[in-house]
Amino acid sequence: MLSHSGRYMQEISWAEFENRILGRGAVAKMIVVNQDYVKIYLKSSFKNDTAFAAVFHPVSGNEPNKGPHYMMTIGSIESFERRLDAAEQKLIPGEIIPVTYERTKAGLWNLAGWILPTILLLLLGRYFLRAQGRGNQSMFNFGRSTATLIEKEDTHNITFDDVAGLDEAELEVKEIVDFLKNPGTFTRLGAKIPKGVMLVGPPGTGKTLLARAVAGEAQVPFFTISGSEFVEMFVGVGASRVRDLFKNAKEKAPCIIFIDEIDAIGRSRSRNAFFTGANDERESTLNQLLTEMDGFETNAGVIVLAATNRADMLDPALLRPGRFDRHIYLELPNLKEREAIFTVHMRPLVLDKTVDKHFLAAQTPGFSGADIANICNEAALIAARGKKAQIGTTDFLEAIDRIVAGLEKKSKIISLQEKKIIAFHEAGHALTSWLLPNVDPLIKVSIIPRGKSLGAAWYLPAEKSLQTRATFLEQLCATLGGRAAEALVFSDISSGALDDLEKVTKAAYMMVAYYGFNEKIGNISFYDSSGQKDTGFQKPYSESTARVIDEEVRKLVDGAYQKTSALLSEHREQLTAIAELLLKKETIYKEDLEHILGSREESEKSMSRAV
Ligand SMILES: Nc1ncnc2c1ncn2[C@@H]1O[C@H](COP(=O)(O)OP(=O)(O)OP(=O)(O)O)[C@@H](O)[C@H]1O
Ligand SMILES: [Zn+2]
């Protein structure tokens, strides 16, 4: 008996595995755990082998992969795979050995529950591929593929000089550059450099550019891959691409891996907890990514940068410590930043004296860095077409017109009436949440469109481990505040509240069917399809209970909506004041709200009675 991670087990050596188990069609599956050992699950038919059973006793595993298994220590995943490949000719026809990759972080989250079906599918996919290609053979070699998606680029000419208006973000990534340049200085002091950094921001704000500049500044290789390229791939290919990517990167360390559009693979799983099959490929890719992130040392010299437009959509597993635990937010540039971006992109251009950067920046509110780069390029083309010796202001204005037209088509530019609706919508959220004492404090409200959202409010989440029913109720009201304000002011409502309504519906179902907050349903927690919990455990409920749940949810939401509407009509003057300030300043802060509404403590006192 020997002890491995605190448990007693019978270990099988590679030689014993090769001689006694391989080539007998005995392996049900193998799971590679944490780089260093493999769990071997044998088919029950193999139990008849008394000679084997006399020597080896399986570990009676409880979680997460149930059932007795054997352990085998491996030097590294690479050497294990090499051995498997080499042993391929030992297999009997039709013998298939499914190998999956897993990590054990006991209790944190149950990986096996969702990865196993994925892997099974994956194996089937590979199996058929193989069967077609070269007869009914084994499938050891699965998942290895040429990494055509991964390109090492020459980024050494891109530096922070090419990035404008992202001073804060630049400051944050500076540390990474220093580390890549002189890892010794950091490791000697025991400093931990983040492995993964998430760049979050609307399209075209320079996420890719910043990542390239980090590599360029540090003079290290840059590996890039895009999440969206995985989506339509054949099963199994995504995961193996990720594995190859990290393998290559580790050989070239120090270096940067950049994963663009990570949301394409890293979208939250809980959303589609009930749909299986469709997302298997994405999930196995995501899982492989997590495995890789966990599998290398903090100071190994590989830093993974990822970019997304929507951090809220990402699977929380990606954001845990040791993965992408550092986030850098990039926003659409303000006036001064736009001017700086114009400066960068005008550098190679031949301009006449009329061109005024400040003026152009003022003409382009809501434009991203990419839009501005486009304008500069377009202006040069227009001037060239006109056979001019220099590019002038009129060329820029014409370029702006063209790009605005293009943007309007993509409905990125919003009309004044739309802007008014958005302002009142956000003012509704702000005011409701301000008036309700249990809602998290508001920091900032904005009607500058970013990503898919037209406006947004930011809250400071309180560090609470318990949420009371009153808190839930008030949160419902605050979320409904947007639509209620639209209805009150415009006597019409818009589709802009869709996200809010999704949130409200989910929260209301959670309250009624999950947290036991509803008197009719009582203190019973059903696993509900709108809930977040992905344990896979579901208590069934009858048709009639389902009907009661639906009714109670409706009542709850209707009640909250009425409360919100009443609150807003009571404070209609303040609502208008907030909306008008938003229209004027586009982004307002806590202090602005205090100016209109008084300090929040006061409203707490008066409102704790009213609601
Ligand atoms: N802050 C900036 N300074 C200078 N140029 C910028 C800036 N932001 C964007 N650009 C220009 O726009 C181009 C596209 O930006 P980039 O690809 O980095 O955006 P992104 O945030 O990665 O966008 P997406 O989310 O669409 O992938 C850059 O190559 C650069 O020319
Ligand atoms: Zn809203």
UniProtKB/TrEMBL annotation:
GO terms for cellular component: plasma membrane. CDD domains: RecA-like_FtsH. This is ATP-dependent zinc metalloprotease FtsH. HAMAP family: FtsH. The keyword Protease applies. SUPFAM superfamilies: FtsH protease domain-like, P-loop containing nucleoside triphosphate hydrolases. Homohexamer. Its EC number is 3.4.24.-. The keyword Protease applies. Keywords: ATP-binding, Cell membrane, Hydrolase, Membrane, Metal-binding, Metalloprotease, Nucleotide-binding, Protease, Transmembrane, Transmembrane helix, Zinc. Its cofactor is Zn(2+).
